[in-house]
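Hi support team,

I've been running sequence recovery on a batch of backbones for a student project. Most finish fine, but this one hangs at about 90% for roughly twenty minutes before it completes. I'm not sure whether the input is malformed or the queue is just slow. I've pasted the structure tokens below so you can try to reproduce it. Let me know if you need the job ID as well.

Thanks,
M.K.
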């Protein structure tokens, strides 16, 4: 049998060798990391895929809702202008209704309509027409009442 001192010396030697080898391996790994870093492989997992799908769906939904809001705002603007025109017409009609309640104003209204729309004149009334006027197409017989307004 071997002496315990010899056994202990063998263990120390073996332990020192092991430590040297371990240090060499660690140094080699550090050197490899510094010189040629390995690229990490990206794993496409289900969580990333679901997140991507959710983001795309959210973007699409936001875009379509933005378009719908623009269309609705345009419709609101159109309805407001229509409302303003109708309110103006209602006020004019209310004035006409008030005139119809008063007999003198009713006669004025009827006379105005007869003169403007039906081109009627009062008895013994003389109308003078300037034929030299080139702008008046209605008088020349080649135009309409709308042409006079323009």
């Amino acid at each position: 049998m071997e002496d315990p001192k010899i056994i202990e010396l063998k263990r120390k030697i073996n332990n020192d060798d092991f430590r040297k080898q371990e240090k060499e391996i660690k140094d080699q790994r550090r050197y490899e990391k510094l010189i040629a870093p390995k690229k990490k492989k990206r794993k496409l997992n289900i969580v990333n895929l679901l997140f991507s799908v959710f983001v795309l769906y959210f973007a699409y939904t936001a875009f379509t809702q933005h378009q719908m809001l623009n269309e609705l705002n345009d419709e609101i603007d159109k309805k407001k202008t229509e409302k303003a025109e109708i309110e103006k017409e209602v006020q004019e009609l209310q004035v006409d209704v008030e005139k119809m309640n008063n007999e003198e104003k009713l006669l004025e209204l009827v006379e105005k309509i007869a003169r403007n729309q039906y081109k009627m004149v009062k008895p013994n009334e003389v109308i003078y027409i300037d034929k030299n006027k080139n702008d008046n197409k209605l008088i020349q017989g080649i135009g309409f009442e709308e042409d006079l307004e323009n």
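--
Follow-up from support: It reproduced on our side and the slowdown came from queue contention, not your input. DSSP finds five helices and no strands in the chain. No action needed from you.
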